[in-house]
Give the backbone structure.
Amino acid sequence: MGVADTFRESWATRTGFILAAVGSAVGLGNVWRFPFVVGEAGGAAFLVIYLLFIVLIGLAAILVEFVIGRHTDLNPVGALREFGGSSWRYVGGIFVFTGIVLLSFYAVASGWAIRYTLASLTGAYMDDPGAYFGSISTGWETVGFQLVFMIFVVGIVAFGIRRGIELAVKVMVPAIIALIIGLIIYAVTLPDAGEGFAFYLDPDLSVILSEWHRILPDAAGQAFFTLSLGMGVMITYASYLGEDRNLAEDGGVIIGLDTAIAVAVGLFVFPVLAAAGAQYEEPGAGAVFVSLSQAFGDIQFGAVLGFVFFFVLTIAALSSAISLLEVVVAYLIDEWGLDRKVASIAVGSVIFLVGIPTALDLDVLALYDALAANVLLLLGGIIMVVLVGWLQSEKALAELEKGIDDIGPWGNVWLWTVRGPVLLVLLIAFVLAIIGFVEEVQGFIWG
């Protein structure tokens, strides 16, 4: 059983909660992972499937986490125990594990962003982008920048919800939005930008029909990754909410802002790549770094654009990383009674150590990514959908109704959306993701 708290923190304002949730959702999922997944998975064909996931299951899925978190006022382990029964505490451990795995390799990629931001001041990556990425993507210097990033993350979370996370996201998220808008305005003026827009926004139906089995798990995984679903973040953040909040309204705002930012990043990235004649389909975790570095070297004001973009990437990564750390920190505070600062330092240290192998070998990073961003997130989603949609539906619906004047028939619409379409899509995507992960493991073992 958990440790009773005499005081539990809460959000100071609705804006703070929304920006924290958006900041978690934006992160590397939108600015780093989204462009390279779009490029690998067929451009506009992937975008169509991804947006369908967001529209059809995004709001329903995020409300599943919200009702669990607010109803229990606990971390994912304690929340599932209280919401579903004592045996569910073991299932809740999956979310703590997911947060550790995600942040362990996330911090490495964030370290890359820091190095590229600094390198933009000298143009160090422009002469030979591929060689530069190869020189900084692995090794003990990479571990050093991973450590620097984790120190910032731990520092913010250690200050708590209001003085740490909420204060930080109120600065970071508006800055991210403003800078991305500025980048898009410039991208529109570039020669051949139309080719990039066509790749990104003009779907080829034949690609969707022939590649759906590959696009589906990638799109579902990306949707859950970018909305911070399936990893316990939204359970944790909702646990700091009051009962007067309209969860459906807040969820809609969060999803709308997150999706708009994700799409906006593509509106900058692909026109820039087109203007520079760079490849859209560059595979792997370093795709955005290598392709955009090449592009920045071939267009006017490239060094300035590079600095702004990689700075956005860095602060977006930070806004997301603090939410992942908070999941595990909240578990130690709620269940074991640890002091927040002690818990933050302890968890941050463990995650740093777990991530070192990904800083030394890109194949290990790809393996972590395939496990966490597809398999574990979808598994977490399935678990919560079954619990809320089928096992504790009355409790969930009663929680959703709080803060809503008259939910009418929409409560049942939500429940049946969770029980049917959401669960079905997650199950199909999960099976395909398992197949993809097995192939990834085989490739890692056999080379």
